[in-house]
Design a protein that fits this description.
The complex is a heterodimer of chains A (481) and B (93). Chain A has 3 domains: 77 residues; 205 residues, no CATH class; 182 residues, Rossmann fold, CATH 3.40.50. Chain A has 19 helices and 7 strands. Chain A has a 7-stranded parallel β-sheet. In chain A, α16 links the parallel β3 and β4. Chain B is flat and about 50 Å long. In chain B, 65% of the residues are buried. Classes of the chains: A alpha/beta (481), B mainly alpha (93). At the A-B interface, α1, α2, α3, α4 and α6 of A face α1, α2, α3 and α4 of B.
């Protein structure tokens, strides 16, 4: 196939990717956008298959079949509550693919593969001209090195993120020295990249670089926990795109560069949105711990004798006279699989003419937009899902707020207590409502490890127990009255 | 060299375009955006196809190509399907 024609079709594929993402700017056009993007991918793959000659299709067909099977089973079976794990895995596979391409290109251009491990350690005579004429050789080597590095970090980092989200790995581990250890690993891998650009024949250095970068991915994500996961997933999403764009530089392939950089920016923008929503810098999320926060806050002092608890049927009585109710979901709603029960409660309230909306904090859940997907699954119309900036001014005219499974994002200390570790983090001002109902298992602190003065306020009622069960009981009581 | 500059130009312009596009995506669609862009990053499949099939290559190169094709295909198929599943839920009223 004519290379110009191939590149022209790559251009069309790139345009379709752009139109696809543009479609995602509105829920109405989003499905069509996704289809356009998929069509672009199909075009790019088919034209690539038609353009390659003298190839052994056995590996290609086997890979395509295996990948399609695994991908389809994953996509069709995953539960909406497990979407963060799914995205983490997909990020990792993207990084792994880029890593494999870069290493394959390295050995293919080098024209030799060591027959044993001992062989690999013996450097061979090779210079950058094997990888391209003049400066292009060096650039190709830099691209190979960086793709290996970012691809490997994305691969192992995402696998750890998956294990943490799946709650297989519950503890946090780190290198001795924490950020310093990571910095040493990162600098050592960069040094290996630089060394390879000058001495491309040192296969041993390539292998060392792979190992270093894989280790870096592990140790970067292992110390990071629970509520910081949205940032990690968004960042790894970005890395998988950057790795694809870099792979495009290795192969001189335009569509890889366009698609990869779109994904790279997407992940970076989401990362930034998540960091702003937590009032923390990216460096602080990745390397820091939550600040220790002035004097130690005693939970007992805040809660003692001031917490009022209520039964679901008592809450139903308050709801009966309400005109406007806002539901604030958090990760606890996902854990309890309570989204359908919440929708039922909202239905019961709406049947009585009560106005119901949902207040969504940007970092509620374990990935950007997590709560929205869960509620959409429960058939909540998306115009009822209101962002923080728009819902906050309405709390003063709200009769009842129902907080289910959210904690830190409603903590008034972030607004009122200067010197508190979460001071400055934008929160949902649920305490401005006339009555606040908090459904929670116990008074245990959220991810920030802080007591929440909201729970001790005069107009707050604590409903202890399983979120799903409590909501169902409220619905039943409301329907019977 | 000229090609390299062209690729670099493409890269930089795509970054700016990405910023313009992504900032317009509403928070409600951020999860489908992530899985959808994930599928797009499966474009490495194109690179993987080029690496996997190269005839006369050592087994190691073909093997790595096979791994790359498999992983990228999971990304493409899984990413688009799961995004479609999610978006279909947003569509119904």
């Amino acid at each position: 196939m004519n290379p110009n024609l191939v590149n022209f079709i790559y251009l069309i594929a790139g345009v379709l990717f752009i139109l696809g993402i543009k479609g995602l700017t509105k829920p109405k056009t989003a499905v069509r956008g996704n289809m356009l993007s998929a069509l672009g991918m199909l075009l790019a793959v088919v034209v690539t298959l038609l353009s390659i000659h003298h190839v052994d299709f056995a590996y290609i067909i086997a890979g395509l079949i295996l990948g399609t099977l695994v991908g389809a089973v994953m996509a069709l079976r995953v539960q909406m509550t497990s979407m963060p794990q799914m995205v983490a895995l997909l990020n990792g596979f993207g990084g792994g693919a880029s890593l494999a391409i870069a290493v394959a290109e390295y050995f293919s251009k080098l024209g030799m593969v060591p027959s044993s491990f001992a062989d690999a350690l013996l450097p061979t005579e090779a210079n950058s001209s094997l990888f391209g004429a003049g400066i292009e050789g060096e650039v190709a080597l830099i691209a190979i090195g960086l793709t290996v590095m970012i691809g490997a970090v994305t691969l192992t980092g995402s696998l750890i993120a998956f294990l943490k989200l799946q709650e297989v790995m519950k503890k946090s581990y780190g290198l001795p020295g924490g950020p310093v250890g990571n910095a040493i690993l990162a600098l050592a891998s960069l040094a290996a990249v630089a060394f390879l650009v000058i001495n491309p024949g040192h296969v041993g250095v390539m292998l060392a670089m792979i190992v270093l970068a894989l280790a870096l991915g592990l140790f970067l994500v292992m110390p990071i926990g629970g509520a910081d996961m949205p940032v990690v997933i968004a960042l790894l999403n970005s890395y998988s795109g950057i790795a694809a764009a870099l792979a495009g530089f290795i192969l001189g392939n335009t569509v890889l560069i366009v698609a990869g950089s779109l994904v790279g920016t997407s992940g970076l923008i989401l990362t930034q949105i998540m960091c702003v929503a937590m009032n923390r810098s990216l460096a602080n999320v990745l390397f820091g711990k939550m600040a220790a926060g002035g004097e130690k806050i005693d939970a007992d002092e805040i809660y003692a004798g001031k917490v009022t608890s209520a039964q679901p049927d008592e809450v139903a009585m308050i709801l009966e006279t309400a005109k406007r109710v806002v539901i604030v979901p958090g990760y606890g709603m996902a854990m309890a699989q309570a989204q359908h029960a919440v929708r039922e409660l909202a239905n019961a309230m709406e049947a009585r003419g009560i106005e119901v909306e949902y207040g969504i904090h940007p970092v509620a859940g374990r990935m950007p937009g997590h709560m929205n997907v869960l509620l959409a699954e429960a058939e909540v119309p998306y115009d009822k899902l209101v962002e923080m900036e728009r819902i906050n001014p309405t709390f003063e005219e709200t009769d009842v707020v129902i907080v289910i499974g959210a904690n830190d994002v409603t903590n008034p200390m972030a607004r009122d207590v200067e010197g508190s570790p979460i001071y400055g983090m934008p929160i949902l001002n649920v305490d401005k409502a006339r009555t606040v109902v908090v459904i929670k298992r116990s008074l245990s602190p959220g991810f920030a490890g802080l007591p929440n003065p909201l729970f001790a306020m005069d107009h707050t009622l604590m409903v202890y127990g399983d979120g799903k069960k409590a909501v169902i009981e409220m619905t039943t009581a409301l329907n019977q009255s | 060299m000229e090609i390299l500059i062209l690729l670099l130009a493409l890269f930089v312009l795509s970054l700016f375009l990405g910023v313009e596009l992504i900032t317009k995506v509403p928070p409600t669609l951020h999860t489908p955006l992530m899985s959808g862009t994930n599928a797009v990053s499966g474009i490495t499949l194109v690179g993987a196809l080029l690496a996997a099939g190269a005839e006369g290559s050592p087994l190691l190169v073909n093997g790595l190509g096979f791994v790359a094709v498999t992983l990228a295909t999971i990304n493409v198929v899984g990413g688009y399907l799961v995004t479609n599943r999610m978006l279909a839920m947003f569509k119904r009223k």
